[in-house]
Automatic annotation (TrEMBL):
This is Pyridoxal phosphate-dependent aminotransferase. The keyword Transferase applies. Its EC number is 2.6.1.9. It comes from the Bacteria. PROSITE patterns: AA_TRANSFER_CLASS_2 (PS00599). The lineage of its organism: Bacteria, Pseudomonadati, Pseudomonadota, Alphaproteobacteria, Hyphomicrobiales. Signal peptide: none annotated. Belongs to the class-II pyridoxal-phosphate-dependent aminotransferase family. Histidinol-phosphate aminotransferase subfamily.
């Protein structure tokens, strides 16, 4: 059967390998907490309407986003997870001969969508696991069409300040689309408004998801703020009816339950900071995280492999990040306190015996 050579040349997006482990892992940055009870209730009610197609205009969800985050409703598009919107924006705004610039440690799915579009994915080094705006600006060429910025970053967990993002936008040619992926934005303690505001100035897109702080990864709901003209073009390639009725109802209720999400964020951050403290006390390097995971750097690849094995033996599945070139690191999602205490004990003990490594 005839296949486009470009498709043949694409490597499949690597799916996480949990070695047959069928319990929640520490590998996908899912929430350690159940979704809001109000969201669960809304989901049960929406199931009764499963015979009907969902609202293709996402009206209630858009209103909830606008009301709770103070953004303009008409600029919001919704996706089956933010992956859906990443893929649509990359396909709409880049193609063969174009470059997509991203910091070295940016969500790898972007590289995969760049390949689908036939665009060249260019990675720019970071300084000590922090995005360098100066390096990104220096790397822009006439072929650059999109700059993709994950803030906070994955897999580093670090973030740059709003003022740096504003400076980046101001330094870019008007024809370069800046996409700011804020999948972990709820865990960032910065005011989101200065970045949302960039969308009103044109040529900047901000993406968010219900998969992390809201605990709805299994439902697949993401959304983005798009300048009106960009949103109009992206909308042409978004599948209509892309978000199910149950997902729309649950996401709407979850967004409206502000007290619940704030509590999840606060509790997750407290568990994260205790884990990071324990790991640093054991001599491991852990960059400051503004997400629901930590990156842990070991003395070398051998120690990282041993750490992964020991965690797995204890039923704890962390994420290898060799795909980012970080062979000496593991990324660990923040789970329940009991699990994180065990992670601390296993990794702390390892350091005690690392004379062998
Ligand atoms: C930085 C970042 N962006 C986007 C996503 C995709 O999230 P989803 O498609 O579940 O909204 C993830 C998922 O891990 C992520 O880490």
């Amino acid at each position: 059967m005839r296949l486009f050579s470009r498709v043949e040349a694409i490597e499949a997006f690597p799916l996480a390998d949990f070695g047959g482990h069928d319990k929640p892992t520490l590998a996908q940055n899912e929430s350690a907490f159940a979704p809001s009870p109000a969201a669960l209730e809304a989901g049960r009610a929406a199931l009764a309407r499963a015979a009907l197609y969902p609202d293709p205009d996402w009206n209630e969800l858009r209103s909830a986003i606008a009301e709770t985050l103070g953004v303009e409703r008409g600029l919001v598009l919704c996706g089956a997870g933010s992956m859906d919107l990443i893929s649509c924006v990359v396909r709409a705004y880049s193609g063969p001969g174009d470059e997509i610039l991203a910091s070295a440690y940016t969500y790898l799915f972007v590289a995969s969508t760049a390949a689908q579009a036939g665009a060249t994915y260019v990675q720019v080094p970071e300084d000590d696991f922090a995005v360098s705006v100066d390096r990104l600006i220096d790397a822009v060429t006439p072929a650059t069409r999109i700059i993709f910025l994950c803030n906070p970053g994955n897999p580093t967990g670090t973030r740059i300040g709003n003022a740096e993002i504003v400076r980046l936008r101001a330094s870019l040619p008007a024809g370069v689309l800046l996409v700011v992926d804020q999948a972990y934005g709820e865990f960032d303690d910065q005011d989101p408004r200065p970045v949302f505001q960039l969308v009103n100035e044109g040529n900047t897109v901000v993406l968010r998801t219900l998969s992390k702080a809201y605990g709805l990864a299994g439902l697949r709901v993401g959304w983005g703020l798009f300048p009106a003209d960009v949103g109009r073009e992206v909308r042409k390639i978004v599948n209509s009816n892309n978000v199910t009725g149950v997902a729309l109802a649950m996401a709407t209720a979850a967004l409206q339950d502000r007290a619940y999400v704030s509590d999840v964020v606060r509790r997750t951050a407290a568990i994260r900071d205790r884990l990071a403290g324990r790991l640093r006390d054991a001599g491991l390097e852990v960059p400051s995280s503004f997400t629901n995971f930590v990156l842990v750097r070991f003395s070398g690849e051998a120690e990282a492999v041993l750490a992964d094995e020991r965690l797995r033996a204890g039923g704890l599945i962390a994420r290898k990040v060799a795909g980012y070139g970080l062979r000496d690191c593991l990324r660990i999602t923040i789970g329940r306190e009991e699990e994180m205490v065990r992670v601390g004990q296993i990794l702390g003990g390892l350091r005690g015996e690392s004379g062998a490594i």
